[in-house]
Input
Amino acid sequence: MGHAVGDVLGLAAGVAVSPLPIVAIILALATPRGRLNGPLFALGWVLGLAALGAIMLAVGGSGGASAHKQPAAWVGALKLALGLLLVLFGARQWRRRPADPSQEQLPKWMAAIDRLPPLKILGLGLLLSAANVKNAPLTIAAGASISSAGIPVPQQIGVLAVFVAIASLGVLAPLGVYLFMGERAKSVLGNWRDWAASHNVVVMAVLFFVLGLKLLGDGISILAD
Output
């Protein structure tokens, strides 16, 4: 089980560093119903990652590992495809980076967060985790790694839980600050929001490249064995 956890740690860290979802939960916390909207967003985020990972475990099943407990060829092909996808996204992000980080603009839908009802806040958290162009491939790759580890189903579930917990640290950190820092939270979260908004494109481009190359390497290694 330990080697399976090691395989997904980097992927989980890549999911955790998600500037736009971090900005989104900070905006949700700033609404009049912040004590409700913040936890709902975080819950949606966790549910999205857990559901996508569980689907991947179900798809992989016992076919994820060969008789010698080596990853099956389809796992290598999947990681190769996901890695190529992330590298291409990284190139696209890098080309569209602003010359001046202060000119970075947030998506227009973020302006409507303060008007969203609680259920839509929950849905937003789910979408930003499970349907995100970076997080979805990384979660799918993590599920494939877990299913290819040759460990029993209960241990697979345990590794997935570790992945989800680490991958959720980025959105849980603002929630923790909001709940435990009182009045000081507004200033701290405001600084976090401004930094994440201004550096979103560059951070995402670097993450796409690094994690994409990692998945490409993993895929090539599996297919070459």
